[in-house]
Amino acid sequence: MFSFVQAQDIKPEAFTIDANYFYGSILRHNKDISHLITEHPKGLIISYNRKTFGDKRWQRAYNYPDWGVSFINHNSNNKALGDNYGLYAHLNFYFLKRNLLFRVSEGVVYNTNPFDIESNFKNNAYGSHVLLGTALLLNYSKENLFKDIGIQAGITLLHYSNANLKAPNTSTNTLAFNVGLNYKFQNEEIPKEYSTDSTGTKYTEPIKYNIVLRGGMNESDYLNLGQHPFFIVSAFADKRVSYKSSLQLGTDIFFSKFLEKEIEYLSAAFPNYNIKGDEDYKRVGIFVGHDLHFGKFAINTQIGYYVYYPYEFEGRIYQRLGFKYKVYKNIFSEVSLKSHGAKAEAVEFGLGIRL
């Protein structure tokens, strides 16, 4: 039990808007996109940020972050690559007396000119109009320099990929400098102490056991093999070691039909690859993981190793980055990106139970 202490008239609906202009370069993370790195990309980030005031414990634990939405216009200055228009959800975290802002954003992006074998064969970065976007922003921000108007400047990293939903999918990463203005619609300061409870109180839970069913669609990197469903069965134990963190240990069984088609194709088209065609497309991995908790939400990171790996595909080590949401009691949903290093394999949609 705890109570709130409110020494000043704080309006919980307080929010800000900001706009950032950015200018940067596409990074050469893969030699196959060298022909797409020509001019410097530029664009605009427009954001709505809702303040938090500690009415929930996770807000106090993370120094009163903001949540919000952003629109990002990314002009690549390359006709073959096209332009990107994205809508993102984000969290802002504050440091150095709330002058340093770190933003994590995930969203859905529309690309104006994806790969087409006849009209745009040069764009091997994006195989579809719809992409997934990740935006990381680090800003030095000063609010209320002139009445309610402030300034900010920093660096931004923009990543675009369709997670092999449709080939090709080499993806791009843009590193940019940004500068902009912010406007605060409420002038109240967030208090240093808003509640009498302590977020430093030790918090643990006993070991719990989880089962997750994941699925989706993806495609081989070899063109015209089609999109195919995949299914994953995961089982793991987790241990809540603090209010913010849980540790995991478990196993995955992968049923990826696109690999079955790829094996069949390569065995017939490239006999020098020494692929017989009867290799098993299934894989089994073991993994360790971590959940970073934000109330009902969590950011999940995992790293795994294939212990059953009959067909060579992108190496034995894999990673997973996802978002979990507690739907009801011990039921949770999940959206995650599975990859091998910088190479994405699939976006996974999952439903799990924690026993």
* CATH top level class name of the largest domain: Mainly Beta
- How much strand? over 45%
Low-confidence segments: 1-11
Major sheet size, sense and barrel closure: 8 strands, antiparallel, barrel
Strand order of the largest sheet: 1-2-3-4-5-6-7-8
- The CATH architecture classification of the largest domain is Beta Barrel
CATH topology name of the largest domain, in short, is Porin
User: Can you give the helix content as a percent range?
Assistant: under 10%
The N- to C-terminal Cα distance equals 26 Å
Q: Which structural class fits the helix and strand makeup?
A: mainly beta
Shape: flat
Radius of gyration: 23 Å
Tally of discrete structural domains? 2
Q: Tally the helices: what do you get?
A: 2
The total count of strands amounts to 16
Mean pLDDT: 90
H and E string: EEHEEEEEEEEEHEEEEE
